[in-house]
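Note to self: keep these together.
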Amino acid sequence: MSVLDSIPHAIADGPRERRTGMRWWLLAVAVVVVLLAGYLIAAGLIALVMATADGAQFNPVVVLVGALPGWLALHQTALKITDAPLSVLPLLPTALVMLLIAIASAWVARRSRLRRPDQAWPLITAMGLVHAFVGAGIAVVLGGPVHAIPVDAFVSCGLTATIASAAGVANRCGLIYLVWERVEAEVWSGMRLGLLALAALVGAGGVVLLAGICLSGSAMVAAMTSLGNTAGDAVGTTLASILYLPNAVLAGWSFAAGTGLSIGRLDVQPLHVVPGPVPDLPLLAVLPTHDSAAWWAIVLALPLVVGLLVGAACRRVPGSLARRLLAVGVAAVVAALGTLLLAHVAGGDLGNGPFGQVTLRPVALAAATLCWVAIPGAAVTWLAGPDIYELATEETAGPEADGEAPEEANADAADTAGDAADTDADSTADADGDHADPTPDAASVEDEPDDLEPAIPQARTAADAEPPVRKVSEIDPTEFDGDLSGEDRR
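Structure:
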């Protein structure tokens, strides 16, 4: 028996280099699927309205043509209907489309085994540019009563797809780790708590909206009845109210924060109301059309609770008082910027009639959010002091016990584990590396080492993880490169 026969093929043949990188055909498939999904969502909504409307004739051609401006509306592109501007667009279908883009981008990154930030930029750029050019093309083609400005379509569609794609690959490709690596510990903690504050203020807006719906049930029924008594009218108004629910939640937060909102001549604030007409939509029936009541001031307690929550969370930030206060400031800035962006998108123009512009006052709302989060949060952090029990528990458990601090070799360890798990799968791929994995889809559902994404870092640790020590191979394949003698062959 030859000595070479006893050596495994993987060792005798030497290490085989696997080509990694973007699989462009997968990206093309994902982009086409996302575009078609958004178009079908718009067409489905239009078909539902036409099928249930009283006296309307269902025409598939009209539905397919009307889905083109509907696709632009899903990406928050301002439209003009018979020269009347319409930029107050529902956020719920936009959130659904962004979720689809994020899922598709994450799928392409996983199948292409992208793990580094430099590998993510081509995917994000391609996804954003394709949507931008498609939106601009639709705006150019559109004619008749409904049209859009191509530049606006290019920017809005491109930004929507870019943000969603970046969010989809941020964790897997190390974009979050890249930010964590370049900021201080208290800044990172403040960014995390800013997202917590943003979620809390959205919850506060939902509480205000729910209270308004409960108190205005009869007015909502009257508004629905005024539009018609048929089932089609009820379905249409209910569908419109559901699609605009995220906009209403943001309006609830603007009301609770004290800045209020305005629809044309109607100006609503907790302590002041200027009456004015509103569209006949059941969701808008929750808006008061009379003078404000004194008990409305209790809604101002909701942003105070948000600030106290952020302050209590910042007590767990390790370090001195200055570090904890810095975390509070960063959290307030993140929450204010998020509120500014969402409030700007939720508002816009609503025709040329008496309703005019719908605005949540983004700048004033962002400033109010900054104060509501920063002042109570800083007061709690300063007066209550650090959470001694929490800090003592973390010091006792250590960074390995709580699992909050990622190792600096996070991405390299993931690459090593993924390469070991994917060696057999890649052995059947062609030299260009453009074929899909030979393993069936059922097997890909199971958690493989390649698919285990690095956890989002929570906090820093003082000690750095020691780099893994490579085990020296017991058999060196180069020792058997020469010819063997006859005695060695036996």
